[in-house]
């Protein structure tokens, strides 16, 4: 998963790109970068590096990145390793035309495309699928960026939201299924495209609308032109439901669904379907907070802060070894003994993937004196891998892929365990039939081209 942003303005935008990327930091903490087209359109300047936005993009770097059009990227690797060569935006020159791209999503046919390009002599400098997009784009870029984007879309399959920097302007593209979000906003004479509406709010702009699935938008000199890839894809839309379950910020509105309200409703529905008689509701911070508020609202069981979060610990989810993931969770979340001692607790989290977090939390709550721990999850069991950009592990590592709810309960040590059903999840999403729920139901909108274990 990654975050992307693009800005087209009549003034220098490097600082805005920086703040915009900052607002997308939750979408990727491994690396980041900014590319700008300089004022005389003569070159693309960029700076990329491993680390957080505030570490990589320092004042000295930003001072050298002047331009009115630019793009930015924060990375959370899902295809290709965590290495400096895989930082984005990617940039290059072909037949004297400059291009730079930033990509969010995963292509499912990139191995095949890469092999074909390598056969033709293309030398790859990264191990990410996004480089395939840049090469196909530049190969067919003969003066009309929209034509070359359309040809590229004929080749690439899977999830892609893109921002492209070209001499013709800023281009934003959302794949025909709209797997990953992409939002268009305006601030005076300036246009902003971002993975999440929150960045547009934070930069002081107004959200205009979501970029539609299969839509290509070209922004130049204060003018926005919209093109359809082929048909109108709105009917086929399959936006990732996990954006709402976990990934997006609470203040994001994606395809008309408010992430915060979605999460609160999920908690309310869970409580409505529940009959547990507990003393307190405790959220797993931060992702479980809106769900716990909803659960508390519906059940009237008092909501308490029972876990203290260390805000300086990064992601524990993708640490390479299980023991590192375990110490990571312990460092990140610690129980408040005075709150939990002797209490029967409803613990709310947004998801269970491997089961690491819940197992450790339940154990530490018991050690802190909790009488009972009833775990409630505001999404269904994650049974299938995601090939479209969410970093879920191989199927064999997903605890729900081979265990019943009762087996999971025993494994993580909860007194009881309940998940939201897929139907209830749809209800929480206002019954909008626009979501990919393949991680929960195995119904992949495009058949993945991989071997499963
Ligand atoms: P696990 O510990 O493997 O069961 O993962 C579940 C926990 O990680 C929950 O607390 C989620 O909030 C969080 N989580 C779920 N999906 C992801 C993801 N793709 N990246 C990072 N954290 C996640």
UniProtKB/TrEMBL annotation:
Pfam families: GATase_7, Pribosyltran. In the C-terminal section; belongs to the purine/pyrimidine phosphoribosyltransferase family. Keywords: 4Fe-4S, Glutamine amidotransferase, Glycosyltransferase, Iron, Iron-sulfur, Magnesium, Metal-binding, Purine biosynthesis, Transferase. Catalyzes the formation of phosphoribosylamine from phosphoribosylpyrophosphate (PRPP) and glutamine. The active site is at 2 (nucleophile). This is Amidophosphoribosyltransferase. Pathway: Purine metabolism; IMP biosynthesis via de novo pathway; N(1)-(5-phospho-D-ribosyl)glycinamide from 5-phospho-alpha-D-ribose 1-diphosphate: step 1/2. InterPro entries: GATase_2_dom, Ntn_hydrolases_N, PRTase-like, PRTase_dom, PurF, PurF_N.
